[in-house]
Automatic annotation (TrEMBL):
It comes from Anisakis simplex. InterPro entries: Globin/Proto. This is Transcriptional regulator. One of its GO terms (molecular function) is oxygen binding.
Length: 37
């Protein structure tokens, strides 16, 4: 994970970022933009 390499992150923080990432992907998918997967 990119952020984890730049700074120390505890587990709850890491989980929160993963959730944000998932939400972000869902929003992009909803609006019909390719995510590159």
């Amino acid at each position: 994970m990119y952020l984890a390499e730049k700074t120390t992150m505890d587990e709850p923080t890491k989980q929160a970022w993963l959730e944000i990432g998932k939400e972000f992907s869902n929003e992009i998918t909803k609006y019909g933009r390719p995510t590159g997967e």
